[in-house]
Amino acid sequence: MIRPNPSKVAAYSPPSHRRSYTERDVQLYALGLGLGSDPVARDELPFVYEEWGPKVLPTMASVLGSDMLWFADPDLGLGDAAGVHGDELLTLHQPLPPNGTISSRISRVDLYDRGESGHGVMILEEEMHDEATGILLATRRQTDVLIGAGGFGGDAPPPTYRPALPDREPDVVVERTTLTQGALLYRLSGDHYHLHVEDDFAREAGFDGPILHGLATYGLACHAIVAACCGHDPVGLTSFFGRFTAPVYPGESLATDIWRGEDAVSFRVRAVQRGATVIDNGHADLRG
User: Is residue 211 part of a domain?
Assistant: First the structure.
């Protein structure tokens, strides 16, 4: 395996990215999460039906940023390892419009090493602006785990950000069964990674088959909180964090455990049949 090159990564400046999207893309994103699976659920239709919306989930910002094609640059040594999401923090400065053009720039790339028998860790920060107005819409911080790519001589990663969950039963539990074709639909929003489609590739990476995109699970958790805590109004969310702890396989049932606070929410997501926590230490800030 080709190892990451920390000096090359440190010196590299990822290209800026421009992404135009329409109301159709907003609807496709929501459909890829499984919204609308009950076609008469009136609270979900505004996310998938243009006559009543479309409302835009804040987590759509996660698919409007960099296409990560620079990741495959052979000089960086990043593209040889299978990569999975470690965590995602999204800060919403303004509500996402239902159409427009996003201009984004990755302002930070940090590479860390968990040792010869471990993994590489890469942390990115990206700012996303409305191209027409210049307004900062969202900032996202993404942690990627480069499977088996440790041992390149980099620094150890910093302590993981892990907001504590309350020591009591959740206030609300929202359950939803993911679509068996969910990964195939979600990838149409821009994440075409082989891990979510090709069985052989997924098994070589150590999974039991193609897995659902971590950001699809993240989006489902966001919708659960928007529904349970924001009156189905996505504008009510100002930040959203989740740490990915286990894969989700398309077709599994998920339960989002939610603890309400004054202006914030804690949450985790469980794969019901396996009893596995798939997103942990979740935290969302609500608009006051």
Answer: yes
Instruction: State how far the Cα of 177 lies from the Cα of 219, in Å rounded to an integer.
Output: 14
For residue 125, count other CB atoms closer than 10 A to its CB.
15
Helix (H, G, I), strand (E, B) or coil at 230: coil
Q: Which residues neighbour 182 within 8 Å (Cβ) at sequence distance 6 or greater? A: 32, 33, 34, 212, 216, 250, 251
Does the predicted model carry a pTM greater than 0.85? Answer: yes
1 is a domain residue:
no
Q: What is the pLDDT of residues 3-12, one digit of tens each?
A: 888 788 888 8
- Ranges assigned E (strand) in 188-275: 237-244, 253-260, 264-271
43 found inside a domain: yes
Please, which pLDDT band fits residue 80 given cuts at 50, 70 and 90?
Answer: low
What CATH number is associated with residue 225?
3.10.129.10
Phi, psi of 38 (to 5 degrees): -105, 100
Helix axes of 214-229 and 23-33: crossing angle, nearest 10 degrees: 100
Number of domains making up the chain: 1
| 110 neighbors 263 (Cβ within 8 angstroms) | no
Measured CA to CA, the distance from residue 76 to residue 288 in angstroms comes to 43
Note down the domain range covering 78. Answer: 6-286
CA distance 136 to 133: 9
Q: Which of 53, 137, 133, 132 is nearest to 96 (CA)?
A: 137
Q: Which of 233, 19, 232 is nearest to 105 (CA)?
A: 19
Summarised one tens digit per residue, pLDDT across range 191-243 is 888 899 999 999 998 899 999 999 999 999 999 999 999 999 999 999 999 99
Query: How far, in Å, CA of 273 to CA of 96, rounded?
Result: 34
- Most distant CA pair in the chain: distance in Å? 55
> Span 88-112, mean pLDDT?
95
